[in-house]
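G., the chain you wanted modeled:
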Amino acid sequence: MLFLISLSTLMIPLQVIMVTLFKLVTSMGLYGSYWAVILPTAASALLFRQLSPHVTLFLHTVDELDDGAWEQLAALDVEVVTGVVDRLRVASGTLRAVVLADGHEQRVDAVVVAPRFEARGDLYRQLGGEVNEHPMSGTFVETDPMGRTAVAGVWAAGNARDLQAMVSAASADGVRAGAAVNADLVAEDAAAAVQARYGTVGAT
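Predicted structure as tokens:
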């Protein structure tokens, strides 16, 4: 049953719980810090604790949690395993344990790994822009509310700028950015027309 419950959570995209993770990290006083990039794993463990009383957090390459995170995990009886994860032990097609680099094996029924979302920023970089680190693990293109980036004439929409946007929200974001682009072109055309007629922009 625990395996089925854990497996069902794999079908929930991180975008769905992004807001909850953000609130958890903020409540720990970690927003805007490097810990906010490292600790979503601890926050995720708190979320999985809602589904099962048996949750284990593998710190892997995280050196240390802060006192607030340890306090919350301990209060919810979340077991924390230190050490680098080396591999999973599978027998007859069934997951049996997580094996650490020192050889220690931790028996598990299921394993969930938090994904990291990376904006496809190659083209944006070629145009002179830079992607930013997101406090909830990943990278994104920073924009204003309408999608305008720091690079003149360049807009971004969807998951490139909003990691928590799912299909419908990303689609709507594209429409909004498109409207902003069109408004910018309209203003540019109007300015060019004024320049052509009066010889100066803004003359009446």
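The first helix runs from residue 2 to 9.

Shout if anything looks off.
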